[in-house]
DNA sequence: GCTTGAACCTACAGTGGCTGTAGCTCGTAT
DNA sequence: ATACGAGCTACAGCCACTGTAGGTTCAAGC
């Protein structure tokens, strides 16, 4: 039986994060020691490892919840699992596309600045006026 | 003099967002009508346009605050402005790199799944065990 | 057995950048 | 004069944590 700190170390998680996962029902309520401290077994270790690895791959906690639920029904077709992963891939690709457009625009405005005074800094000019931009970028956000 | 809703429409901002910017000191406290409603002039319009466009280019509100402060000293060298933009570019590039690694890993695991049962879904196998991954991905988060 | 101190506990506030809601008041067109 | 859209304040909620305060428990060393 592992104390929460040991579980945290084994999975590269912070202690508070584990308690947070419990609070939102992503980790089960574990057994307790006589004094009331959490004690974890191998099942919980595996579950937390799954959660953490999914997080490293960028899945949302909501998607992870879905994936965990699905993996409790081993007989079912994995179509839904694949759909969750596909959707996530698309979102990642969309974010890359947006960031790539940003990168191009930023690089251009930085390259155009002749490093003079603030009064005629190219970067500030572009920020003041979207007409100076080549790409469209409607929604602020990541 | 513009009411807040008009300013919002002109800049593609939500009314609450403008009030939020005022609350955190990014927009100045505007004049008020007799009845106490906010009234904006062209200076505020320009400032909000600058903020919004900077947000579209991914700058944080903290960076935007800095850029706005800097642009109040037109005589100074724009080195600091350029540094803010450079730093942001590097962060964007770092995020692209991370997302690109994610994309590769996700695409691989999706491609390897033979779309069978949950019990032997390749996606779940990879999520359970980072050893199945090719890349390293230490920190969760975008 | 006793003391120490690291690790644990709960509860709550804060992060960034908004967004939404409730319950009012104001402005303006007819 | 009245209707109603637009404005007002204050506060809660989103995501995924992270940090803090103030107290309790555990395990090792003596
Ligand atoms: Zn410059
Ligand atoms: Zn632009
Ligand atoms: Zn599958
Ligand atoms: Zn991995």
Automatic annotation (TrEMBL), chains A, B:
Gene3D superfamilies: 1.10.1660.10
Molecular function GO terms recorded: DNA binding; DNA-binding transcription factor activity
Keyword annotations of the record: DNA-binding, Transcription, Transcription regulation
Ranges of residues in domain HTH merR-type: 1-70
Name this polypeptide is given: Cu(I)-responsive transcriptional regulator
């Amino acid at each position: 039986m592992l104390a929460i700190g040991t579980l945290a170390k084994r999975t590269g998680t912070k202690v508070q994060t584990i308690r947070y996962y419990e609070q939102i029902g992503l980790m089960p309520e574990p057994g307790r020691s006589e004094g009331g401290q959490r004690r974890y077994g191998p099942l919980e270790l595996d579950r937390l490892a799954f959660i953490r690895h999914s997080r490293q791959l960028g899945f949302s906690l909501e998607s992870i919840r879905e994936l965990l639920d699905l993996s409790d029904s081993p007989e079912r077709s994995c179509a839904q699992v694949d759909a969750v992963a596909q959707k996530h891939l698309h979102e990642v690709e969309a974010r890359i596309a947006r960031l790539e457009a940003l990168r191009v625009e930023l690089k251009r405005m930085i390259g155009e600045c002749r490093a003079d005074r603030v009064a005629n800094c190219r970067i500030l000019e572009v920020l003041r006026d979207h007409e100076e931009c080549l790409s469209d970028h409607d929604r602020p956000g990541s």
